[in-house]
Amino acid sequence: TQASTNEIDNIPLVDVPNSTIQLGGTFESFYSNIWFDQYAGISGNMFGRSSFKNLHINSKRHIIDFGYGSNNTDVSDIYFNYYDNPASDIEVSLIYINESSHDLIINNIYGSGGWNGNNIINIAGGAHDIYLNNSKFNFPSLSNNNFGVFISDESGEVYSRNITIENWYMNCEEIGQFLRIAGDNANDTIVRD
Fold it and tell me: Is the pTM of this model over 0.90?
């Protein structure tokens, strides 16, 4: 829901912003040609064998937050524009993939505006076989000590792996580091074409 009041007793909701597409638990679901003005983009767990295409997201928070086993899903032709609103100012990653999500293709993502959050891409918690291609992020006011791309292991027990990033462009004022790979199983091996 995007309701701004509790619809039972009409009391305004406070500090509970959400997304139009959230919670997940979908299988073979298809979302296309949708325009959103909302707090956040696509958020949830277990998006399975689904497709998100040609979405126009005006949001303050993020484009994608996939967790808990989201898999075999295609996200393409997404147009994100930073949209200021009075919701929470908690900094998050623009694209967040976590908790063993796998076999995701994220292609043709375009971000612009005054977004000044955390990392642009954060992959963690055993996420694997992630393909991020042909994307452009133009955030000229983005200025922080975080990372363009942050890939990490978790507690030396869960390893993120098989991450491919190709044809990726980022424009920002300042960022701490373009790529950081961290964790007990991290090494300096980066294969590039």
Answer: no
Greater confidence, 66 or 192? 66
Rounded to whole angstroms, how far apart are CA atoms 95 and 13? 26
What gap in Å lies between CA 161 and CA 124, rounded to an integer?
9
Contact 70/46 with Cβ under 8 angstroms? yes
SS3 of residue 153 by DSSP: coil
Q: How far apart, in whole angstroms, are the C-alpha atoms of residue 104 and residue 102?
A: 6
CA–CA gap between residue 66 and residue 76 (Å, rounded): 15
Residue indicated by tokens 């199983």: 185
Percentage helix, strand, coil for the chain under 3-state DSSP, each rounded to 5: 0, 60, 40
Q: In degrees, to the nearest 5, what angle opens at C-alpha 135 toward C-alphas 33 and 57? A: 35
The token duo for 159 is 């390893």
Burial of 134 (0-12, 13-18, 19+ CB in 10 A): middle
By the 8 A CB rule, do 115 and 94 touch? yes
pLDDT tens figures, 10-20: 666 555 555 55
Strands 30-38 and 64-67, sheet pairing: unpaired
Q: pLDDT band at 3, cuts 50/70/90? A: very low
